[in-house]
Amino acid sequence: MPALPAIDPTIVSVIRDDLRLTTWLLLGASLQSLLVLCLPTPYAVLPAVLLLSYRIIKVSCMTAGLIHDTTQDQVVKGRFTAQLCPGESFAAKQASEEEVVIFIIGARSNQSFLALNFANRTLLTVVTTPLSRFAPGFLQAGDYFQSMWKEAEADPMTCGYLGRSSDMLATDDETGKAIITLSYWRSMAHLHAFARRPAHRAGWDWFNRMTQSHPHLGMMHEVYAMPKGHWENIHKNFTPFGMGQIKRPVQGETVLDEK
Fold first, then answer.
1. Considering the entire predicted model, what is its pTM?
2. CB of 241 within 8 A of CB of 166?
């Protein structure tokens, strides 16, 4: 039997976080009510009881050490730091011995629009929705982001591209959704050169055109250049994140002195 395709965790997060907790509870209550109307009561409540029981038993067994604790799979135990590799070699002789540039880029959908045109008459209705990541143009913006990362990953040495973090989803309000990514580069010169490459230019030109017809789309970026010896990262019992996702972590207590 062929294995089921893996679901992109970013897609799961988008669907999960675009709805408030109360909305998910109402959806569940509606589904349960529908089952009660269609089935005898014992059969209607059986799916929820079985699923809840399974999750309680699984968590209890993982806590007691009876089965493998999947929540710890990505956690790196102990203290570690991620260091940049000088040139193509692996080992860094000392902490933060290389310059690093952090490029933060984000796209935001503030609200979605419904527009109906009838010949010379225009009916425009503005609809604020929690599903604003599915607003017109936002998914297309994501395609330009992916094209930009693919171009950098195809020739990282020339681009001076070191890697990037997982996408971070901002849900600080009900109508605006933003996706933020941290990326790491060897120098400002490399980053500026990459900005002139085809993928970034195509995305930037598209965005400048789309802001006229899609004013609900937003974009931001920040750039920080850190000279060698002026940056650090320390993780302890943590999943690799940020710079830890782009290079193998250097294990050991003697890499950096905590103060």
1. 0.73
2. yes
